[in-house]
Structure formats: C-alpha cells, structure tokens
Design brief:
- The chain has about 260 residues and is of the alpha+beta class.
- It has three helices and eleven strands, in the order H-E-H-E-E-E-E-E-E-E-E-E-E-H.
- The longest helix has 24 residues.
- The chain is globular and about 55 Å long.
- The relative contact order is 0.21.
Length: about 260
C-alpha cells in the first residue's frame, strides 16, 4: 500500500506541476478600475462546502467554492479583499466502486468574478450559502473524472476523507485569465490536442451525516480545504485511465487500514 500511495503522490504532483501552466488574473479586464494584475501562479487555494445525497449505489452533490489564495504566494491585486472569485456546481453525480469509494462521473462548475463578497453560512453544507453566482462568469469547467472517500474515525464520531476532481476548462474569459506574459488565454489557440485542466485536491475536515427517512439514504454535509492546480495536458485520456486505477487501489488501502 505504501508503494501505491507514493506512486499516487507522484502522479498528482506530475498532474499539478510537471504540466503546470503559469498564469495571472486581471480583474481590471472586467471590473475596470486600478486593481492591477496578480503575480504569476499555477495553483488556486480554495474553500468548499458541499451537500451530498447518497442513496447507496449512486450519489449527487451540490457545492460552493471560493478562491481564497494564490499558490505560490504572490501579489493578489485585492483577491478576496476587494474582488472575489467564487462559484459552484449543482449537478455533480457519480456512483460507488466495489471498495465504497465515491467515483464522480459528470458535472459542471462555473466561476464568477464580482466585487460583492460571497457568504458561507454559519453551518456546514451549502444550504445557507449565498452570493456564489454574483458578477460576471469568467470560466466554465466540465468534470473529467473524480474520486473520493469518507471514513469514520473508529475511536470517535468524527469523519475524515478527501476528494480529487479533474476538470476541463470549456470556456474562460481571456480578459481575466492571462498567461505569464500578460496575454489573454484563448482556448481556441491551444496547440492541437492540448486542453487546459484543473486538478482539484481537497481534504474533508467537517462532516455531518443525516439519515434520509424511508429510503435508507444519507445527506452528507461537509466542508473542505484544498487547492486547484492548473495545467495543460496533451493526452488527457491516458492520464485519466492511469489515475483511475491508482485511485481505486488507494481507496481500497485506506479502507482496509482504518476499517479493518
């Protein structure tokens, strides 16, 4: 199992770093004013709240996500202070594999730029969150694949887990997304076979599990801290297939270790 986890870590590092795409954000391009551009980075720090409906073999998920930092730490040009980048999904779906891991199969994510701050409510989950579709849409992403697990600590009522999702940018506003040289990123001008991907890695740190009356399902409210690496991938199909096997093995190992 240790070898599997080491290999998995290498794959995730390769996905997030070896093909990393240095970029900048330019809020001036949409909001006007004198915000300036951010420094050059290749990862976004995120905070996420989700509400999942687990009915056994399948599940669906609603989530709100806010971009809270840039990685590496560079000039933020007012990010999360005077302008805000947030969004969410309402149609993330999937099923469970033979190990009980969550296998995400479809969904779309939209990101919005706004001067109005998003609001995470006082409770976990998405039910009391507001302001995640304010402003101007600056990107849309489509799920390629995803994997996650959730395990209850044997010695307490607490849960822990993680979720790794791979998204493909299907649209982005080139006024806002710039390359390291300050040029607007245009999806139509990528080299043949290239696509821009977002590799999301988040750890679950708050969980509330609520039984659904009459059908044996569960409503799972959870919060997550994580990061999103942005990169150009020339052959997404081979990477996806390779990642699928490793995530399945990793999930099986986690469950064997902690559940006995």
């Amino acid at each position: 199992m240790k070898k599997v986890l080491i290999t998995l870590a290498i794959v995730l590092f390769a996905a997030g770093s070896a093909n990393a795409m240095p970029i900048m954000l330019n809020p001036n391009g949409i909001l006007g004013g004198s915000y300036g551009t951010t420094g050059i980075f290749d990862q976004l720090g995120t905070y996420i709240q989700t509400t999942s409906t687990d009915v056994g073999a399948t599940f669906s998920d609603v989530g709100d996500v806010a971009v809270t930092s840039l990685i590496p730490s560079v000039s933020r040009a007012g990010l999360d202070e005077t302008w805000f980048l947030a969004g969410g999904w309402s149609n993330l779906v999937g099923n469970k594999d033979v190990y009980g891991n969550y296998v995400y199969t479809a969904g779309t994510l939209d990101l919005y730029l706004s001067t109005a701050k998003y609001n995470f409510g006082p409770s976990i989950g998405t039910g009391d969150d507001t302001g995640f579709a304010n402003g101007t849409k600056v990107a849309s992403l489509s799920l390629v694949n995803g994997y996650g697990f959730l395990i209850q600590n044997p010695s307490s009522v607490e849960y822990f887990g993680s979720v790794d999702l791979t998204w493909e940018f299907t649209s982005l506003d080139k006024r806002f997304w710039l390359d390291q040289y300050g040029n607007g990123i245009d999806l139509t001008k990528l080299s043949a076979g290239e696509k821009i991907f977002a590799f999301s890695d988040a750890n679950t740190h708050l969980v509330q599990v609520i039984p659904i009356p009459n059908n044996g399902g569960l409503t799972i409210l959870s919060d997550h801290n994580g990061s999103v690496a942005i990169g150009v991938v020339p052959e997404p199909a081979s990477m996806a297939l390779f990642g699928t096997g490793l995530f399945g093995l990793a999930g099986a190992g986690f469950r064997k270790k902690f559940l006995g």
